[in-house]
Amino acid sequence: MARRNKIYEGKAKILYEGPEPGTYVQYFKDDATAFNAEKKATIEGKGVLNNRLSEFFMTGLTNVGVPNHFIKRLNMREQLIRQVEIIPLEVIVRNFAAGSMAKRLGMEEGTQLPRPIIEFSYKDDKLGDPLVPEEYIIAFGWATQQDMDDIVALALRVNDFLAGVMYGVGIKLVDFKIEIGRVWDNDYMRLIVADEISPDSCRLWDIETGQKLDKDVFRRDLGNLADAYTEVARRLGVLPTNVTHATKPTLIN
Ligand code: C5P
Hints:
Elements: E1 6-9, E2 13-17, E3 23-28, E4 31-34, E5 39-42, H1 46-63, E6 70-73, E7 78-82, E8 85-86, E9 89-96, H2 99-105, E10 112-122, E11 131-132, H3 134-139, H4 145-168, E12 171-185, E13 188-194, E14 202-206, H5 216-219, H6 225-235
Antiparallel strand pairs: 1-2, 2-3, 3-7, 4-5, 6-7, 8-12, 9-10, 9-12, 10-11, 12-13, 12-14
Bound molecules: cytidine-5'-monophosphate (C5P).
């Protein structure tokens, strides 16, 4: 392929200029980072798994009518996406207490929440993505009140879809993070789900055993991350059942 213009390089992905205006190519790296990149590793196969899993979740969202940036998968590590203007927020939805919420409130991890709770962090690596109240978001003009209403509605639809899909394969959706982007159709602005949905950005626990099948395996040194992601992909039918990470992920088309 001809040399492409790199638009942006993040911790786990690279964005390149796409083949047509209004598109990007999203490349999934094998790099894993945690604690705002204080902990780093390269995990062979992670990018391939996340490309395929994000395709699976985004395609499912399209099929239930939730707008998102995914157009098509291009190859093992790349997908074509719609160019969006990212809202500088991490939108986190929690069904059970875990991670930073459990720590902040002194709650036991796994405690069921009375209803899905949505929180927002300001996307800024230098600041460590601080939690921000909605009032800051509106006062600083990162999003309008109407945007926030739409973001909450989108986040809850993603939660219902993802929680159901994961439940169907014996996995509890504890929490997840999404990002939202703006797109314009002529003068009309819409908000759509962007970035990625993968075990890097979700907490996924086996319903029976509580085994963690997400990035906490890396954050907390609980075992082999690619094995955990392969298990999620295998249960969802994204990988054939006889594939282990030792033989490298194989795609089913
Ligand atoms: O760390 P915390 O408990 O706030 O994370 C909540 C959820 O958001 C987890 O599923 C985590 O993987 C995800 N997250 C993320 N990227 C961040 C922060 C959190 O994907 N920068």
